[in-house]
Amino acid sequence: MNAPPSVAALYDIIHRRRDTRREFTGAPIESEVLERILAAAHAAPSVGMSQPWDFVLVRAPETLVTFREHVATERRAFAETLDGERAETFAKIKIEGICESGLGVVVGYDPTRGGPRILGRHAIDDAGLYSVICAIQNLWLAATAEGLGVGWVSFYREEFLRALVGMPEHVRPVAWLCVGHVAELPEVPDLERYGWRSRTPLSTVVHQERYPSR
Ligand SMILES: Cc1cc2nc3c(=O)[nH]c(=O)nc-3n(C[C@H](O)[C@H](O)[C@H](O)COP(=O)(O)O)c2cc1C
């Protein structure tokens, strides 16, 4: 049975979403569009309705360059841990589009948001962090629907990014998202295209009743 058109449209966005790095055009995002994708992020589910996210919008070229240089240092640190084929393959992969996108959205997690007793976080403290990830995914899908690209950058030290955007000590910088117009969305993830790693078949991660014994 085929999905109704509106459902098919959602699946289409989910499957078209790509991490983008080299495709950014640098064209500025219309403010209404940016507002819509941030509103989509803010509509995410959150443990105890804590809404523990913050979004710092970074456009200043000097801040983008400073962050890109830090990421380049972390890239070198990771590259030094590789050898042989892994090192050669990694060398071909672009891991960020910080300056090209023209906009960085730094997503923060504030564990104090909503007070000391968050409904649903008493046993699993990470549930706060999970909520922020839900917001990021909403933003990513909304951006895809709007024809924008998003690239998640995690090659950074949290204390560096916290200081760069002035986040207080208790707020955790969870992601730097490069967000911008793109010439196109790649059909195949870069990591797959360069032979770093491929998506595994669904059947390898779906289990019946119990986790499979090794
Ligand atoms: C938590 C997280 C951190 C990531 N960090 C980076 C990164 O630092 N640089 C990068 O190029 N891609 C990064 N990615 C993107 C992944 O490489 C990408 O999602 C994966 O290769 C699958 O490709 P797709 O998102 O296009 O489906 C990150 C993704 C996630 C979810």
Bound molecules: flavin mononucleotide
The whole-angstrom Rg is: 19 Å
Low-confidence stretches: none
Which range best describes the helical content: under 10%, 10-25%, 25-40%, 40-55%, 55-70% or over 70%? 40-55%
Q: SSE order, as H and E? A: HHEHHHEHEHEH
EC number: 1.13.11.79
Keywords: Flavoprotein, FMN, Oxidoreductase
Organism: [Mycobacterium] wendilense
Pfam families: Nitroreductase (PF00881)
What is shown here, in short?
Its EC number is 1.13.11.79. This protein has 214 residues and is an alpha+beta fold. The chain is built from 8 helices and 4 strands; from the N terminus they run ααβαααβαβαβα.
Polypeptide structure, described:
- Keywords: Flavoprotein, FMN, Oxidoreductase.
- It comes from [Mycobacterium] wendilense.
- The chain has 214 residues and is an alpha+beta fold.
- The protein has helices at 5-16, 31-42, 61-79, 84-92, 98-101, 127-145, 158-164, 190-193, and strands at 53-58, 104-109, 148-153, 172-181.
- Helix 2 (31-42) packs antiparallel against helix 6 (127-145).
- The chain is globular, with a radius of gyration of 19 Å.
- The chain binds flavin mononucleotide (FMN).
- Flavin mononucleotide (FMN) binds at residues 18-19, 21, 95-96, 152-155, 189, 191.
- Residues 18-19, 21, 95-96, 152-155, 189, 191 line the site of flavin mononucleotide.
